[in-house]
Structures are given as C-alpha cells and as structure tokens.
C-alpha cells in the first residue's frame, strides 16, 4: 500500500474544491486538522472517510461518508459549508464566519454502521447489559448486522451509473438531484 502524504491529501481536496467552485476552510488550524484526519483515515481504512465522522472500516457502511461525502453538496448549497466545514462557498471563505451545519446523514445509517439497533418509536429502550457467565447461557446471541443490499442506479440526466445501497444525494457528474436517479433492474440467466 502506498503511503499517503499530507501534501497529496491537500492537493486532492484543493482540486476537488476548485472543480465544484468551493474553497477549503479559511481557518488554517482547522484545515490542518481536517487534512490530517483524512490522511489518518485513508491510511487506516484504505479510503478517505470524512474527518468529522467515525468510519467503521467497512466500505459498504462508510461509502456515503467517503470525503467528499454524499452530503457535502446539499450542505454547501443550504448552509454555505459542508458538515465538517472543510468545503465552503466563496462568501464563507471571505468572511471567515463558519456556520453550524446539522448532520444530514440519516440516523438509520449511523445506527447501522455502529451496530446500534433501531428501536421503533413506540418501543421502550432496553438497557444494554454486558453478558456475564451466568446470563450468557440464557441470553440469545447478539443480532447480526443487516446485509446491505446494493443496487445499480443511473442518473437519467447524464447516464452516470453507480452500484450502492442508495443513489447519491447529488449526481457527481451533472449535479442532478437524487430524485433523478432510477434503479436498474438486472436479471442474469446462466445457460448451462
């Protein structure tokens, strides 16, 4: 595996920002922290998980938070900055007043990534109790994480195709909204 350098991470983020008309955060200490976080995550997982979120090391669970994450473009459009404020608009860059951006990642994705079961709204929360030798014989084994069902999605506007659980919020090619994506239903028959 190649070593990831801080300079490489910076140049990649700068090129991506320039491509989409964004800027990197104007606060240099914050920028340095984000770049170091991206570098550490890429070395740890093999892909650059967003520096302001915890990755799991399972690319299928982390796919939506690989930087630039799926939520960056809608966040920048609405708030002028992404959730972690690595990417900002020109106005935010110039006035250096970083906004608070709420988490856009769906709670069910966060919960699934960390193995936290989603309780139904009416269901009372059960306390988590560590198993003891006595209770481990009577308690059922912990539930296995649900399987991620990936699908083929295509952008009806530009034809971009992606294989993942959900379509991206915004097409990385033409910037069409998520609603423009359609699922490709593929059936494979093997002739024996």
What do you see in this structure?
Strand 3 (151-155) and strand 4 (161-164) form a beta hairpin. Mean pLDDT is 83; it is low at 118-130. This protein folds into two domains: 6-107, Ferredoxin thioredoxin reductase catalytic beta subunit (Ferredoxin Thioredoxin Reductase, Alpha-Beta Complex), CATH 3.90.460.10; 151-184, Rubrerythrin, domain 2 (Single Sheet). It starts with 5 loop residues before the first helix and ends in an 8-residue tail after the last strand. The chain is globular and about 60 Å long. With 192 residues, the chain is an alpha+beta fold. The chain contains six helices and five strands, in the order αβαααβααβββ. Helix 1 (6-19) packs across helix 2. It has a three-stranded antiparallel β-sheet with strand order 4-3-5, with no helix packed on it. 30% of the residues lie in helices and 9% in strands.
In a few lines, what is going on in this structure?
This protein folds into two domains: 6-107, Ferredoxin Thioredoxin Reductase, CATH 3.90.460; 151-184, Rubrerythrin, domain 2 (Single Sheet). It contains six helices and five strands, in the order αβαααβααβββ. With 192 residues, it is α+β, with helices and mostly antiparallel strands.
């Amino acid at each position: 595996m190649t070593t990831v350098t801080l300079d490489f991470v910076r140049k990649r983020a700068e090129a991506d920002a320039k491509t989409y008309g964004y800027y990197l955060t104007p606060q240099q200490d914050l920028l340095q922290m984000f770049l170091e976080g991206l570098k550490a995550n890429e070395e740890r997982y093999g892909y650059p998980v967003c520096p302001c979120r915890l990755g799991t090391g399972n690319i299928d669970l982390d796919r939506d938070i690989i930087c630039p994450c799926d939520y960056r473009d809608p966040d920048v459009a609405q708030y002028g900055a992404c959730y972690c404020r690595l990417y900002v608009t020109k106005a935010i860059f110039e006035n250096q007043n970083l906004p608070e951006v709420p988490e856009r990642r769906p709670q069910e994705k966060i919960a699934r990534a960390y193995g936290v079961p989603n309780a139904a709204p009416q269901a009372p929360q059960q306390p988590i109790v560590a198993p003891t030798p006595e209770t481990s014989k009577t308690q059922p084994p912990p539930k296995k994480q649900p399987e991620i069902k990936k699908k083929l999605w295509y952008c009806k506007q530009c034809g971009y195709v992606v294989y993942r659980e959900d379509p991206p919020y915004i097409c990385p090619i033409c910037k069409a909204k998520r609603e423009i994506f359609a699922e490709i239903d593929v059936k494979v028959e093997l002739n024996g």
